[in-house]
Amino acid sequence: MAKNNKLPGYVGWPLVGDKSIEFYRDPIKFYHKYAELYKSRIFVSRILNKPTVFIGTHQGVRQVLIDCADNMNMGYKFFMGDIYGDNILFANGEEAAGLREALSYLFTAEGLHSYQHVIDRIINNEFKQLDENDPVDVYSFFKDIATQICLSLFLGLDTNQSKDLTQQITDLTTAQWHGILSVPLNVHVTKYSSTSYSKALDAKVKLINIIKEQRSQAEIGFPVRLKEVPSLNNDVFINNHLLLFSSALIPKAIASLLMSFFVVTGQPNNFDLQAGMFFDKNIEDRVLMEVQRLYPPFMGGRRLVRKECVIDGYTIPEGYSIVFLTFAAHRDSGVYEEPNTFKPERWLDNEVRTQNKLFTFGAGPRSCIGYHLVMNIIKTIIQRLMTQYTWKSLTEESEINHKWLPVVRPKMPVLIDFNTKVEIRHLGDKYATTL
Ligand code: HEM
Question: What is the pTM of this model?
Answer without folding.
Answer: 0.94
